[in-house]
Automatic annotation (TrEMBL):
Organism: Leptospira levettii
Similarity section: Belongs to the class-I pyridoxal-phosphate-dependent aminotransferase family.
Lineage: superkingdom: Bacteria
Annotated protein name in UniProt: Aminotransferase
Domain Aminotransferase class I/classII large stretches: 32-396
Length: 405
């Protein structure tokens, strides 16, 4: 008897969580490990948000809430969409979940039938394809690269659409590349999508972490017609440094939300009542901490990209958003030392081989690009202090120099 369900045969454990866990184990053993793996801000949750959680506990808000979220949090989400994005939703179009990942998972479980195709531009967030597979859908990966700014073009999108296409995933700013689409970029994609019977999922989790005054735009913001065909997913994890609070939310078609509510009601039920109170304070309270974190991320962005560009064989573009650098290391693959590693190790992925050696011998944790659908790169989160960034990139440079021998 096989103990594990067959659906798990096509799913891999999250590589980002695995690498972060291994780095933390090495740190606990006393090693000085620089961790570029974790996709979470290193700042504490702003004080007024924590105070709101304490107040909620003191007021006895410790019971079940409606599965799809408290009325007051839904009101805050509706106001956020209207004032910041120009999008109007009703309460029956809003759902709150235990993190944006659960909202995304429930969306696909509520919408996909076996064989439905989901277009996913690569590089992509590690969980997109596996969640689609768990929902018995078929991921259709459309590759982009550094020359296109890691952005899918309208022509690529048009060619990927078939009679089986059900969903297109749009993520801007992007994890893992930090690429952000301009309004004209989004308008070009919408021109392809509007006439089609396709749902667009817009993953906006890095919405507020965007640089150089670039305007944030998602497909729903382009036209009323496109809004009706777009499901927007967001949350408080990244912008407010609340990853552990586990609050995400979604907005879109009321029938989809109703079925997501059913899915959630049979799994986790409501998200934490205390976390919902904290999320409400995040959305409605002082936004100064967000601006302060963005300023720090911007400084780190320029620091890490500048240092990476000094390493032989490394090519790195300046990300427009999020807190990730996604340097190409194909030049390193051509070094004598790396070719020897390839001959010695039984590893099909070049980026994984690079990251394994980087962690085991140089005490630096990075995520291989293969986890995001691009084996030419590695992902480095710069959600850590300047000194650690400098130390970590210096070790990467030393590894590359050693491989040239």
């Amino acid at each position: 008897m096989k103990l594990v369900a067959k659906r798990l045969d096509v799913v891999e454990p999250s590589p980002t969580l695995a690498i972060t866990a291994k780095a933390n184990q090495l740190k606990a053993s006393g090693l000085d490990v620089v961790g570029f793996g974790a996709g979470e801000p290193d700042f504490d949750t702003p004080v007024h948000i924590k105070e709101a959680a304490k107040k909620a506990m003191d007021q006895g808000k410790t019971k079940y809430t409606p599965v799809s979220g408290t009325v007051s949090l839904k009101d805050a989400i509706i106001k956020k969409f209207e004032t910041e994005n120009g999008l109007k939703y009703e309460k029956n179009q809003i759902i709150v979940g235990t993190g944006g990942k659960q909202v995304l998972y429930n969306f696909f479980m509520a919408t996909l039938n076996p064989g439905d195709e989901v277009i996913i531009p690569a590089p992509y967030w590690v969980s997109y394809a596996d969640i689609v597979r768990l929902a018995e859908g078929t991921p259709v990966i459309v590759p982009t690269d550094i020359s296109s700014g890691f952005k899918i073009t309208a022509d690529q999108l048009e060619k990927a659409i078939t009679s089986k296409t059900k969903v297109f995933i749009f993520n801007s700013p992007s994890n893992p590349t930090g690429a952000a689409y301009t309004r004209s970029d989004v308008e070009a994609l919408v021109k392809v999508l509007e006439p089609k019977d396709i749902i667009t999922v817009s993953d906006d989790i890095y919405e507020k972490i965007i640089y150089d005054g670039l305007e944030f735009v998602n497909p729903a913001m382009i036209s009323d017609k496109m809004k009706e065909k777009t499901f927007v997913i967001n949350g408080v994890s990244k912008a407010y440094s609340m990853t552990g609070w586990r609050i995400g939310y979604g907005a879109g078609n009321a029938e989809i939300v109703k079925n997501m509510d059913t899915m959630q009601g049979q799994s986790t039920s409501n998200a934490s009542s205390i976390s919902q109170a904290a999320a409400e304070a995040a959305l409605t309270g002082d936004q100064t901490p967000v601006a302060e974190m963005l300023k720090a991320f911007d400084k780190r962005r320029k620091l890490i990209v500048g240092l990476l560009r000094e390493i032989p064989g490394v090519e790195c573009r300046m990300p427009e958003g999020a807190f990730y650098a996604f340097p190409y290391i194909t030049g390193v693959y051509e070094t004598p030392g790396f070719k020897r590693l390839m001959a010695e190790k039984n590893e099909n992925s070049l980026s994984k081989l690079f990251c394994d050696v980087l962690l085991d011998k140089y005490n630096v944790a990075a995520v291989p690009g293969i986890a995001f659908g691009d084996d030419k790169a590695i992902r480095l989160s710069y959600a850590l202090g300047d000194k650690d960034i400098e130390k970590g990139v210096a070790r990467i440079k030393q590894m590359v120099l050693d491989l040239q021998k």
